[in-house]
């Protein structure tokens, strides 16, 4: 009997009709394995995973495979995005056994959950042989299997240990991290490493803050070059604006077509901040289009942001997105079709499969004259209409708390910076930007409300929801950090006390239930389900680690409230990451980003004003804010806004109050004086 029909996870629902008697992750599944005295198959993946779909079609939809699994195993299907704690434990085991990891992840375990054989994707013939071998070993070599499992648990327990060496996260360590990134930088293509190449958003956020603190031209140039290379490449959807998960090559040309909420949220922050610091037209255009993609393609009104768009369409990767020159001519006519082929690098030979090409921006159009930009935008509009008539990739519409928190924070930064900048570009461009800001503002507020009303349950967070119904899995540390940081951002955007109160509630819960010895944090709560080991990964990867995320929220909350114990908790936690920051900078990007905020102060900027939306002092604060600064604007002594307490107007005029590390300068009433204090 397949038990996935009532799951909230779209990934699990994709397997609800398999001939495999799947169980969701639950105690009852392991009890059944003990009753039958059979091993457990734990199959971990996610909805947008291409090779997960391949293994599903080859093996899990196959009657022969289903019969073998049902007779000899208890089979458990796990959505890694819904249960990152389960994924983390067994991924560590997979990496320990095989030297690599990935999804689909295939783990064989004892009825108590101890892994004894791990792998990733197996073609059907290999998988059939593996099932026979594991069954035979379980029956005839049980002692060896159990010894292997015990050795794996010991290994992963050490890998997830807390209580290691600590050190202050100093300017010298952050400078060393920036230097290491500069040495590992791909001078030709941008980014770091070879193929496959992932958007290094967390490292770019760090380098932008490092540039602000130190004036490093090298750090800024790495960000500018990488952002331009990605924006012009096929990894960037040249029509709809989002970014794919990664490029299969080293030069950003051909993507793995899945689009993840977390990548786009973090890249929105990068491009927004790059535009803020440089005024770069390309950076603003890309930020605008990411915001539009989030609002149009992933936002579900009243339910938050969906997790992802699949890589495949009707089982074919890239079917929606790739073009031939003839298809461009069919959609645009002869003249515009050939012009578009040149602009987007579409050739007869193709850059993808079967003579198809992924659109990339082969010509510089952001600085072109108005006529060229107008033609380009018209071509984009018409091609997007033609593409919309094609089959579309499926959407994983579950709402993940942490990733929605990342999206809210990014959109708050984008909306506030654009709103305070005034009209930008010619009339058409300005109108488009203003329209995107309006829909983005609505989407972020709607999502924040969903997180507050649906995901916060009895003062604690739940990990995921779908169709407005929250799931059972408890929030992990990254959920608490990312959502608390988002609520701090909402407090700054709205001036409403409840967002700050909610952030404090979540942070207090994190300190009470996730804290580990020596200032570290576990990724799961002390009252969460006990797995074979308790994960505590300090490294940043595709998203901020739970430890980095909670530190970011603690720093922001301390700056907004003046309660120093939260800052002290952040400093202690960062000290557990500091020993690896200077040696492994590519895997500590968000920790280093938070470290830059602490070195900066962070600044606390309060503008007492009767016009928070239109005051020039507010615009100057956003434009010139140092790394990690918090900014609030509102009426003097506005209830629930600690930074505005005892902050009067100056002779009836607006006043800006700048503090750094709880030490304040004199209030100022002019933009020039405020900029001087922030410089």
How are the SSEs ordered, and which strands pair?
Blueprint: H1 10-13, E1 22-24, H2 27-36, E2 40-45, H3 50-60, H4 63-72, E3 74-79, H5 84-98, E4 105-109, E5 115-119, H6 124-140, H7 142-159, H8 171-184, H9 201-214, H10 217-232, E6 246-247, E7 255-256, E8 259-260, H11 261-278, H12 281-298, E9 299-300, E10 304-305, E11 308-309, E12 312-313, E13 316-317, H13 325-332, H14 334-344, H15 370-388, E14 395-396, E15 399-400, H16 401-419, H17 427-455, E16 456-457, E17 460-461, E18 464-466, E19 469-470, H18 477-494, H19 497-513, H20 546-561, H21 564-581, H22 589-600, E20 603-608, H23 616-624, E21 630-634, E22 655-660, E23 663-664, H24 671-678
Parallel strand pairs: 1-3, 2-3, 20-21
Antiparallel strand pairs: 2-4, 4-5, 6-7, 8-11, 9-10, 11-14, 12-13, 15-18, 16-17, 18-19, 20-22, 22-23
Helix pairs in contact: 4-6, 5-7, 8-9, 9-10, 9-11, 9-22, 11-12, 11-16, 12-17, 13-14, 16-17, 16-18, 18-19, 18-20, 19-20, 20-21, 20-22, 21-22, 23-24
């Amino acid at each position: 009997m397949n038990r996935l029909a009532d799951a909230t996870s779209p990934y699990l629902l994709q397997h609800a009709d398999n001939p495999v008697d799947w169980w969701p992750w639950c105690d009852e599944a392991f009890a059944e394995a003990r009753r039958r005295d059979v091993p457990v198959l734990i199959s971990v993946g996610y909805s947008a995973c291409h090779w997960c779909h391949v293994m599903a079609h080859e093996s899990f939809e196959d009657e022969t495979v289903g019969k073998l699994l049902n007779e000899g195993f208890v089979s458990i299907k796990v959505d890694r995005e819904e249960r990152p704690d389960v994924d983390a434990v067994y991924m560590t085991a997979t990496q320990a056994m095989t030297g690599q990891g990935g999804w689909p992840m295939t783990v064989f375990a004892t009825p108590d959950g101890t892994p004894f054989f791990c792998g990733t994707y197996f073609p059907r013939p290999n998988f059939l042989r593996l099932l026979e071998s594991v069954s035979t070993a379980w029956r005839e070599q049980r002692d060896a299997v159990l010894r292997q499992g015990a050795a794996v648990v010991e290994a992963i327990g050490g890998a997830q240990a807390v209580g290691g060496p600590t050190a202050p996260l100093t300017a010298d360590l952050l400078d060393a991290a920036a230097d290491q990134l500069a040495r590992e930088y791909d001078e030709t293509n941008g980014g770091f490493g070879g193929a496959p190449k992932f958007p290094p958003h967390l490292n770019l956020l760090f380098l932008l803050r490092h540039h602000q603190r130190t004036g490093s031209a090298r750090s800024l140039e790495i960000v500018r070059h990488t952002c331009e290379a990605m924006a012009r490449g096929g990894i960037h959807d040249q029509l709809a604006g989002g970014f794919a998960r990664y490029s299969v090559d080293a030069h950003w040309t051909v993507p793995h077509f899945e689009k993840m909420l977390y990548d786009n949220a973090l890249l929105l922050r990068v491009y927004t901040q790059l535009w803020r610091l440089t005024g770069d037209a390309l950076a603003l255009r890309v930020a605008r289009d990411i915001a539009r993609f989030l609002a149009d393609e992933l936002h579900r009104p009243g339910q938050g942001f969906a997790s992802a768009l699949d890589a495949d369409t009707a089982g074919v990767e890239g079917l929606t997105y790739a073009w031939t020159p003839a298809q461009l001519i069919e959609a645009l006519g002869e003249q515009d079709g050939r012009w578009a082929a040149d602009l987007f690098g579409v050739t007869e030979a193709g850059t993808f499969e079967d003579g198809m090409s992924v659109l990339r921006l082969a010509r510089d159009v952001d600085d072109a004259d108005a006529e060229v930009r107008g033609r380009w935008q018209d071509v984009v509009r018409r091609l997007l209409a033609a593409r919309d008539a094609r089959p579309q990739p499926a959407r994983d519409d579950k709402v993940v708390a942490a990733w929605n928190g990342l999206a809210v924070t990014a959109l708050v930064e984008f909306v506030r910076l654009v709103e305070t900048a005034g009209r930008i570009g010619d009339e058409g461009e300005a109108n488009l930007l203003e329209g995107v800001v309006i829909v983005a503002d609505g989407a972020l507020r709607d999502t924040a409300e969903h997180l507050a009303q649906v995901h916060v349950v009895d003062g604690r967070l739940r990990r995921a929801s779908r169709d407005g119904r929250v799931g059972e899995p408890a929030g992990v540390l990254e959920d608490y950090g990312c959502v608390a940081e988002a609520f701090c951002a909402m407090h700054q955007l709205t001036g409403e006390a409840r967002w700050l109160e909610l952030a404090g509630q979540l942070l207090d819960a994190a300190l009470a239930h996730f804290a580990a010895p020596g200032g570290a944090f576990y990724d799961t709560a002390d009252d969460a389900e006990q797995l074979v080991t308790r994960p505590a990964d300090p490294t940043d990867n595709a998203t901020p680690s739970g430890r980095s995320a909670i530190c970011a929220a603690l720093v922001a909350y301390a700056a907004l409230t003046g309660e120093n114990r939260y800052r002290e908790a952040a400093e202690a936690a960062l000290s557990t990451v500091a020993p690896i920051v200077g040696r492994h900078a590519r895997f500590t990007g968000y920790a280093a980003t938070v470290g830059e905020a602490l070195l900066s102060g962070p600044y606390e900027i309060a503008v007492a004003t009767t016009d928070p939306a239109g005051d020039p002092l507010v615009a100057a604060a956003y434009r010139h804010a140092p790394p990690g600064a918090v900014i609030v604007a509102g009426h003097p002594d506005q209830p629930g806004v600690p930074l505005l307490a005892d902050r009067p107007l100056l002779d009836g005029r607006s006043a800006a109050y700048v503090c750094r590390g709880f030490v304040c300068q004199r209030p100022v009433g002019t933009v020039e004086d405020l900029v001087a204090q922030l410089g």
